[in-house]
Amino acid sequence: MNRTYSAESKEKPVVSHVEDANVLQKTESGYPYQRDNLAGDDTSLQYDAKFEKRVIRKVDIRLLLILGALYSIALIDRTNLSAARVAGMAKELKLTVGERYSIATLVFFIPYIIFELPSNILLRKVGARWLLGTIAVLWGAAMVGQSFVTDWKQLVAVRAIVGFFESGFFPGCVFLISTWYTRWETQKRLATFYLLSMAISGFSNIICYGFALVPKAGILHTWRWIFFLFGIITIALGALGLLLIVDFPDKAKFLNEEERKFIIDRVNRDRGDGNADNLTGAKALKHLLDWRTWCFGLCFMSATLPSYAFAYFLPVILAGQGYSYKLTLFLSAPPYIVGAVYTFIIAFSSDKLRLRGVFVSLNALVTIVGCLLIGYVKNKDVKYFGAFLAIMGGQCNVPSVLAYQANNTITYSKKAVASAIVIGMGGIGGIMASTVYRQVDYPRYIPGLWATIGAQLLIISICVGLTFHFKSVNKQLDEGRREPIQGVEGFRYSI
Questions:
Q1: HEC per residue, the chain
Q2: Comparing 318 with 273, which gets the higher pLDDT?
């Protein structure tokens, strides 16, 4: 079989010297491919455009749809406290006393942050299907239990349990997705995965309103139905995930041998880490000490602050403007729908133009404008427009920052560590959102809005610094004045 391999990347081809890499040869177009037969004739498979498109579409469908559906329910399960609060939970559990509501929201993130890295380390050992599917079933069971709490302390305890079980899901998904695609395909895929969750979770408050109208059945009534029914849905999707979630490329059983080789070869050609390397203690320590990873983590922390803040407090802010309970929940959905469209446009543009930091900074600026409108404009309709901008920018920066990090992280071991660190820092953003939007500041939440604005300014500052650093390193590499990044010839940082 002698078919021409189409040249997709405009960047210099990479030749990997990472652990377990095979000998790399070059096609006529100058792009390397792997040879499994080191001593024989050229028997490497080459592929035409139709084959490429068919395999990538097959991967997209099997990989992204089930993960997107599960992450949608994960987002709903961690943020539907706001809908339950306005549906009667605050009164019944006395959550308006002091900072009880903030405590109930932030306690989720403590185990969520702590157990992300251990879960990512287990992901390849246990297998993505078994680990991600199982923890979805378990956090669904915890959500069902949340519907039976009788005081705010029990609510806090169950929230911590949900955080423990959810801790491995999102970083595991990001790690898994990043191993399947080339650098300039990544953001569209992460955005598609996240778009599904945004679109569905955008309607969650409306769904919650419908669940709250279900007739009373024993202890289950109004707000309790929200947790119970969403918990049942989570368990069902988790069970489906045990059947449908796919593993890493080298372990994927839904592809045949030729298709698996194609996926691994194209990733090697793009960045040289298509072959998995083992995560050792020494490697983990080395990866933990990379300051660039912590910069991405700070950006993600600052991006998740508005994302969580408006998930937890938008219905509360709207209710404070005089909107009815019913209208408050219905008005919470449109900003997320518009935000989903905006997110996809930014993802497409970022991949097309091959730029990351510029778009991350743009999203932060959009969030700043939205927060200023919410905080200082008296007209409630303009305030509501500000919510659109704040949610658009904040939500879009979640996949944008993750793609920025994924583009500049190579080898399986470093991806496992980096995705856990970055998403763990996102959990700190959730804690900040829970604490800076204080009950005493209701309904304007000015200190919380300014904390959000400050976080966006931090994103812009970090992006400027990373841009100068990456350009400097790339120039040194082009001039032969430094060693290849992690031993991968031809790899360059994405700006």
A1: CCCCCCCCCCCCCCEECCCCCCCEEECCCCCEEECCCCCCCCCCCCCCHHHHHHHHHHHHHHHHHHHHHHHHHHHHHHHCHHHHHHHHHHHHCCCCCCCHHHHHHHCCHHHHHHCHHHHHHHHHHHCHHHHHHHHHHHHHHHHHHHCCCCCHHHHHHHHHHHHHHHCCHHHHHHHHHHCCCCHHHHHHHHHHHHHHHHHHHHCHHHHHHHHHCCCCECCECCHHHHHHHHHHHHHHHHHHHHHHCCCCHHHCCCCCHHHHHHHHHHHHHHHCCCCCCCCCHHHHHHHHCCHHHHHHHHHHHHHHHHHHHHHHHHHHHHHHCCCCHHHHHHHCCHHHHHHHHHHHHHHHHHHHHCCCHHHHHHHHHHHHHHHHHHHHCCCHHHHHHHHHHHHHHHHHHHHHHHHHHHHCCCCHHHHHHHHHHHHHHHHHHHHHHHHHCCHHHCCCCHHHHHHHHHHHHHHHHHHHHHHHHHHHHHHHHHCCCCCCHHHEECCCCCC
A2: 318
In this structure, are strands 488-489 and 15-16 parallel, antiparallel, or unpaired?
A: antiparallel
Say how far apart CA 348 and CA 355 lie, in whole Å.
11
pLDDT of 364-410, one tens digit each?
999 999 999 999 998 989 999 999 999 999 999 999 999 999 999 98
Instruction: Write the CB contacts of 281 (distance below 8 Å, at least 6 apart in sequence).
Output: none
Cβ distance 389 to 366 under 8 Å?
yes
**For 46-55, 232-241, 371-380, which range has the lowest pLDDT when averaged over its residues?**
46-55
The overall pTM is greater than 0.85: no
Binned at pLDDT 50, 70 and 90, residue 489 comes out as: confident
- Mean pLDDT (whole number) for 303-325: 84
- Using CA atoms, how far apart are residues 424 and 190, in angstroms rounded to an integer? 17
Q: How far apart are CA 92 and CA 333, in angstroms?
A: 26
Q: What is the pLDDT of residue 410?
A: 86
Which is it for the CA torsion 89, 90, 95, 97, positive or negative?
negative
Residue-wise pLDDT for 245-264, tens only, equals: 999 999 999 999 999 999 99
Query: Two tokens at 49?
Result: 């455009």
Structure-block tokens of residue 457: 């300014």
Please, how many CA atoms are within 13 Å of residue 206, restricted to the half-sphere of its CB? 12
Tell me the domains of the chain and their CATH numbers: 57-252+292-474 (1.20.1250.20)
Q: How far apart are CA 375 and CA 313, in angstroms?
A: 13
How far apart (Å, rounded) are the C-alpha atoms in residues 49 and 4? 9
Output the pLDDT for position 8.
40
